Write the structure tokens for this entry.
Amino acid sequence: MSEVFGIPTQALFGQLLIGLINGSFYALLSLGLAVIFGLLNIINFTHGAQYMMGAFCAWFLLNKLGLNYWWALILAPIIVGATGVVIERLMLRRLYKLDHLYGLLLTFGLALIIQGLFRQEFGSTGLPYAMPKALEGGQNLGFIFLPNYRAWVVVASVAVCLGTWYLIEKTKLGSYLRAATENPQLVQAFGVNVPRMVTLTYGFGVGLAALAGVMAAPIYSVSPLMGADLIIVVFAVVVIGGMSSIMGSILTGFLLGLVEGLTKVFYPEASNTVIFIIMAIVLMIKPAGLFGAQR
Amino acid sequence: MLVRRGFGIAAAFALSAGLAQAQISDGVIKVGVMNDQSGTYADLAGPGSVVAARMAVEDFGAAKKGMKVEILVADHQNKPEVGSSVARQWYDVDKVDLILDVPTSSVVLAVNQVTREKNKAFIVSTGATSDLTGKACSPNSIHWTYDTWSLANGTGSAIVKTGGDSWFFLTADYAFGHALERDTEAVVLKNGGKVNGKVRHPFPSADMSSFLLQAQSSKAKIIGLANAGADTINAIKQGAEFGIAKGGQQFAGLLVFLTDVHSLGLNVAQGLILTESFYWDLNDETRAFSKRFAQRHKGAMPTMVQAGVYSALLHYLKAVEALKSDDGPKVIAKMKEMPTDDPLFGKGRVRQDGRKIHDMYPFEVKKPAESKGAWDYYKLRATIPAEQAFRPEKDGGCPLVK
């Protein structure tokens, strides 16, 4: 069962589907990162912590306020996004004119502080978060028992990713945003409030991370370290996709989920490293990433 | 991983300034509690182990007896290289006499080596590998609370005897997982079961679904989880989602701690069979200790390894008192000579190979309806007497056993 070609096709389909599900999380998270980097030039290392905050927010809403999963899907991104707005206003704003490195250091430091605070308060083992009733159970597809919840994750993630892509690449609001990245003074001269737009963009990117966190809460342990374990992988995904390419980060997210899924079948010991190997190869051959343009 | 702080001695803590004994090095007994203070094993050992160590010093009455005991703490981040460099610094610079606790088998084996080299003392409570009393055994080390063999023996044979005779292993890909898998496989085969397959996952892994799918297609009745902490929690949680139980398969938690069950919640964890050497609700004495412990540790009941830190340090201090010396190998030899007796593990002894023996208990996790509240999680299924609970001394391959 573990030989290289000894795997029945049916089992392989199952594994590919699982890869797609994990890819949904990569896509959602790397999308948020790409939005923030593409439009703000900030390498947001706090992203993993914000993903974790999304999951904790869902836990709080359920256990302290009695608001269920569906409320959390709407409220957690808004609440965590609002904390992002505060961070942008108070801190990030001062760094736009400086090298990328400063933003990276600031957000990395923030991530450590946030994780430390949560760990101090909640310990490291994690908290239970029940599956929403409506999505319990699953479908037997013959080659795999697909839990309803996982199917929902894929569908929701694809919808959010495409929606975001459409918003930024195809709408008027999106064109303002992109123009403001190219030439903020000019756009400001047209009467657009660029600083506010930038603030809201950061809040939106952070909200995407929180949304992924809420979606992760019922399947992974809600723990302070959940983001720290994931963020490095997601950064690799963004680098492979091309730092500022929205569609690139989405496609790469799903693609690498699939690659990782296959690795888990053929050589599970390497499944944590395979993404970094791909990253190294891509950086050597196409330094701007698969979908990125040279900046 | 980037997102961790560098190691550092988090706290130094001195008790009493009584008269130092002449034979005690530097006039103070220095105990270094080394474990995972912030990562995946921080709740099951971590700061709780430090609380337990302090309680042991107080309950022993070190101050009254004029013994000065100091406790140091370090975070080894589950990395062998960090563990051995902390150990070297402690032994060489800080004059530490005993290193205590130490989760993560790969770190245990590294620190074991350093301790032997520096001729100090090392007592393991949280680390699991049975190699510590097998081929890696040392006159400087004692393995206190449990090991992979005793878990395999407790859980493995309990399950095979009730019909769970075909197994698939989900194994954490490092020293501990390999040892646990090997020891359990031996028990399964010995009891007439068979192993349908195994998969080794990177440590740590958040997503277990792919491995669970492989376990499902193996058609094994039992999925043995040869991992720990967050990996075990995620596997059980996601197993519920992928309908493992509905497909007629059952999990065997080869190393599940009380804190893991607390995190899973009884809804998901119910029915799980696991083996421990200590549970807070075993008898009046364990309840009394656990209540005191919880008051000092955010209301959390002690895990078996935290209880083990308490019990081990108590016995160590007794040996130092009797010997009037804190010389590493001499104290370890004295600890082997003196029978052990404490409120948490009852009577027992330390064997020549460094194995501390006491009863082991296979438990079953309660259904939500059976639980009276937080931390009321286990039903006792059996008691394995001390002499049968651990690998026979002659089978370990320890050169100290003649």
Chain B touches chain A through 50 residues (CB under 8 Å). The longest strand of chain B covers residues 194-201. The CA atoms of residues 58 and 79 of chain B lie 31 Å apart.
